[in-house]
Design a protein that fits this description.
heterotrimer; A alpha+beta; B alpha+beta; C alpha+beta; B: alpha+beta; 7-stranded mixed sheet; 5-stranded mixed sheet; 17 strands; 26% helix; 22% strand; C: alpha+beta; 4-stranded antiparallel sheet; globular
Chain lengths: 174, 457, 267
């Protein structure tokens, strides 16, 4: 079995009924998709399969021979964020961070098929993704701001509101 | 104060959005084994037979642990507060809730570990379970513990709060308004289930990757069970995939550590979503009865309450939660005469634990519904009833703490504004300034006078 | 201690419809995996250890053709794709899970998976009955094509669903369901109906009242102005994890009434 994962080709030894989630985490070592429920219910394992968001835990390896897989690791790195990543960072859309990979992949898939997504589109696309921390508002705002192109992917720092003090605190981990 | 009001990036924001945050399940070590647990399938039973020999013979199994392997099996989560230890890490002669861990296996894969768990022979003699805390005082109900179903707050069987003269309040009252409020259990449902990874080092020290919300607390629990000192443990934590109180319990660390010691290999125990729902602790069910002595113009003279808190099968933090609950039963309001009784009841449900606002959300639920009920009974605007009785500077809390800066008045005013409610001008102008003159009702004059006469006690 | 290799189960990935039918044989000991939404959680939990599995992903069963007045939809077409199907199939498809799970679940799985543990599944069954759809399936005794209603009454779990077909007619469709508490809940009760533009040939069915969808003939006989409560004659309601029989008994006439109103307004 082979897959193209984040642009690189992999020959895989996992048996064909192994879930893509376990292939990615346990064989390939890509750890952004999480095992939140392993029954399709939480959405934190969502990856792109040939550009479409899909639950990795519901997908057996044997059904996707040769497919192109994209995970968060394939979206961007801290110096080169994708618009969705930058928007999640700017809008504080990640709190504990555990649902964030699936949320971002679902959002990336949505904006690929519907670049001018409305709030209703975002709610529909994320309806099956669970976040127990944020209450979803910041997540939805982040996706909408990415849809509108209102993110600066070259400056991965939240932008100050006009009039806000701009501060650097000595010793701050930020 | 330059940080207040400023927009600061989250310290972990960039690693969250790039998938680089390392949760316990993401830690990779060589030669790691997977754990699976045999859990009780019944609410309450004597264990008649437990034989793990067939599990040990399953190829790929490296360790099986039962209560006999635990140096100190029965430990209390609140030992530091003097609460008696009552909960076994692994069941001994009995099980008290469905999902209680009895034996655990470490094997090469999760699949093999599960196969070995299935090979463990166990038989139960089932007992009638006790599941309805409202029946705790009935003489014939099944006993959860040999001492009965009531946690004992020495010297009482309940947490008591007493203030003022409750009998005077109920004699003076124009109306008695009663209500029963029963907030139900809630599963925390963190997206990351309970998980631990324990790596034994050559020196004997254990490296424990933990999803705990309470690092030093969990270190104490693990060290107590293992009978080791804290410097034998190296805890690695701080990246938690959601907890909300449920990860204050030390759920997976100790058992993983025992398996790692026995197998001499790293062991990971990752609960399934079903285990998280069925076996992990939850926010408790509460039963709150309130009777308020009120005047027809809307003053609350006195409040009597009875609370039953469903601790589940073991105490964990329940005695603390019910204490906190009892202290807050006045809500955001000043009531001069109080009598609160809060009982912690053991049942054959899963043990309950902290969850956001532990003990106090049940108060808010009950008290705020009750305030609206009083307003309805008296025919008074519910906003005005709340503002009238809202705590002010100089008022005393149920615990007789003098309030220096209570926020009830501005909070209720802000809520009214957000809800588009037009308050009467006297309530719009109200502040939390000390009551005086017209704003000081007769019963509080009496109350404050007595308090001052007592030298502020 | 050495680790004995676990016996590798047989997994077949047929490359055509013919290969899939041949691999399925009479269905004995065969597990068919279409979209995976039902089976993968069972595999992950260790509750299912199939000896022989057929993955339908590459069997060419995902074709959707409209030819000679007949719509033919392959068993592996996703529920998500059916949001473009004729009503009431489209509305029912939109009401299944969320975008991703709906894109993974299949038409065939919806017909043959049967009820879950303590709740009904098969949201598409009622719309298909309302559309007078036929199922082509393979298995013991060879291939056969039969009305969805009959297929559901004869152990659908033992058959390999190959295709669903119905006449491409200009019919009016109506659909109503109980709202789900969240995207991943199964629908506790739904009603689907179609009628010809001239107002004849009313067909009504419901999903969620029993393990498989049921045709509501008493409602059909009453016509658009009939008593929606007649629906209760055609169903045997039970309690399950999603809803009580008591609740369904009260809600079924309400949903039937809504669907009949939709058809009246459309016509």
């Amino acid at each position: 079995m082979s897959l193209i994962i984040n642009g690189a080709e992999y020959e895989l030894a996992s048996p064909p009924l192994t879930s893509l989630l376990n292939v990615l985490r346990e064989e390939v070592g890509l750890l952004s998709p999480k095992a939140g429920c392993q029954q399709g219910g939480c959405g934190t394992c969502t990856v792109l399969i040939d550009g479409e968001p899909r639950r990795a835990c519901l997908t057996p390896l044997g059904a996707i021979e040769g497919a192109a897989i994209t995970t968060v690791e394939g979206l961007g790195d801290p110096r080169n964020l994708s618009p969705v990543q930058a928007a999640f960072h700017e809008h504080y859309a990640a709190q504990c961070g555990f649902c964030t990979p699936g949320m971002m992949m679902a959002a990336t898939g949505l904006l690929a098929r519907r670049p001018d997504a409305t709030r209703d589109d975002v709610l529909e696309a994320l309806a099956g993704h669970f976040c127990r921390c944020t209450g979803y508002v910041k997540i939805v705002d982040a996706v909408l701001s990415a849809a509108a192109g209102r993110v600066d992917t070259t400056r991965p720092e939240p932008e100050a509101e006009p009039g806000e003090p701009s501060v650097v605190i000595p010793g701050s981990p930020a | 104060m330059k940080a207040v009001g400023a927009r600061l990036p989250r310290y972990d924001g960039l690693q969250h959005v790039t998938g680089q945050s390392v949760y316990v399940d993401d830690v990779r070590v060589p030669d790691m084994l997977w754990a699976k647990a045999l859990r009780s399938t019944v609410h309450s039973a004597e264990i008649k037979k437990l034989d793990v020999s067939k599990a040990l013979r399953v190829p790929g199994v490296h360790a099986v642990v039962t209560h006999e392997d635990v140096p100190v099996n029965i430990v209390g989560h609140l030992a530091a507060l003097g609460v008696p230890a009552d909960e076994p890490l692994l069941a001994e002669h009995e099980v008290r809730y469905q999902g209680q861990p009895i034996a655990v296996v470490a094997a090469e894969t999760e699949e093999i570990a599960q196969e070995a768990v299935n090979a463990i022979e166990i038989s139960y003699e089932e007992r009638e379970p006790f599941l309805d805390i409202r029946k705790a005082f009935d003489p014939d109900v099944p006993k959860v513990s040999p001492s009965g179903n009531l946690f004992v707050y020495e010297p009482y069987t309940e947490r008591r709060v007493r203030k003022g003269d409750i009998d005077w309040a109920f004699e003076k009252a124009d109306r008695i308004v009663q209500g029963v409020y029963r907030p139900a259990a809630i599963e925390h449902c963190p997206t990351e289930t309970q998980v631990a990874l324990v790596v034994p080092e050559a020196t004997g020290r254990l490296v424990i990757y933990s999803c705990t919300q309470a690092m030093y607390f969990s270190m104490g629990v693990v060290a107590t069970h293992l009978g080791v000192s804290l410097n034998d443990l190296k805890f690695v934590g701080g990246t938690v995939g959601g907890g909300f109180g449920g990860k204050v319990d030390t759920a997976a660390e100790t058992i993983s550590a025992l398996l790692a010691i026995k197998a001499k290999r790293p062991v990971k125990w990752r609960w399934t979503r079903e285990e998280e729902f069925l076996c992990s602790s939850v926010r408790a069910t509460w039963h709150v009865e309130i009777a308020d002595a009120v005047t027809k113009d809307g003053w609350i003279l006195g409040r009597r309450t009875l609370t039953l808190h469903d601790a589940g099968a073991y105490t964990r933090f329940s005695s603390y939660g019910a204490t906190k609950h009892a202290f807050h039963l006045g809500g955001a309001y000043t009531i001069p005469n109080l009598s609160f009784n809060a009982y912690v009841i053991w049942s054959n449900h899963v043990p309950t634990t902290a969850m956001r606002g532990f003990g106090v959300t049940s108060v808010s639920f009950a008290v705020e519904l009750h305030m609206t009920r009083i307003a309805t009974v008296l025919g008074i605007d519910p906003w005005e009833l709340r503002l009238k009785n809202a705590s002010r500077v100089g008022d005393t809390a149920p615990t007789r703490v003098v309030l220096k800066d209570p926020s009830a008045v501005p909070t209720i005013q802000a809520a009214a504004q957000a809800a588009g409610v037009e308050l009467a001008s006297e309530y719009r102008a109200m502040t939390n300034a000390p009551r005086k003159g017209k704003t000081l009702p007769r019963h509080l004059v009496d109350q404050l006078g007595a308090w001052r006469d007592n030298g502020g006690r | 201690m050495s680790v004995a290799p676990l016996a590798e189960p047989e997994v077949l990935v047929p490359a055509s419809e013919e290969e899939a039918i041949a691999a399925f044989g009479d269905g004995t000991g065969v597990t068919v995996l279409g979209g995976g939404t039902i089976l993968m959680p069972e595999l992950a939990a260790g509750r299912l250890k199939p000896e022989k599995t057929i993955l339908l992903a590459r069997a060419g069963l995902d074709e959707w053709r409209d030819e000679g007045g007949t719509t033919r939809i392959g068993a592996a077409v996703s529920v998500g794709a059916l949001v473009d199907a004729p009503e009431p199939l489209a509305s029912a498809a939109r009401h299944v899970a969320d975008y991703e799970v709906r894109s993974q679940g299949t038409l065939g799985g919806n017909l043959c998976a049967g009820p879950g543990r303590g709740f009904p599944r098969g949201d598409l069954q009622a719309p298909l009955i309302a559309l007078d759809a036929y199922v082509r399936s393979a298995g013991a005794g060879g291939e056969r094509t039969e009305p969805v209603e009959r297929f559901l009454s004869t152990s659908p779990g033992n058959r390999l669903v190959v295709q669903v077909e119905f006449e491409t007619r200009d019919r009016l469709g109506g659909w109503a369901a109980l709202e789900r508490p969240h995207a991943h809940s199964y629908t506790a009760l739904s009603v689907a109906a179609t009628i010809s533009p001239s107002g004849s040939d009313l067909r009504v069915a419901c999903s969620g009242a029993g393990p498989y969808a049921v045709r509501l003939r008493s409602v059909e006989q009453g016509g658009l102005d009939g008593d929606p409560g007649e629906a209760l004659r055609d169903v045997h309601l039970t309690d399950d994890a999603l809803a009580s029989a008591w609740y369904r008994e009260r809600m079924l006439p309400v949903l039937v009434g809504r669907v009949l109103s939709q058809l009246k307004e459309a016509g």
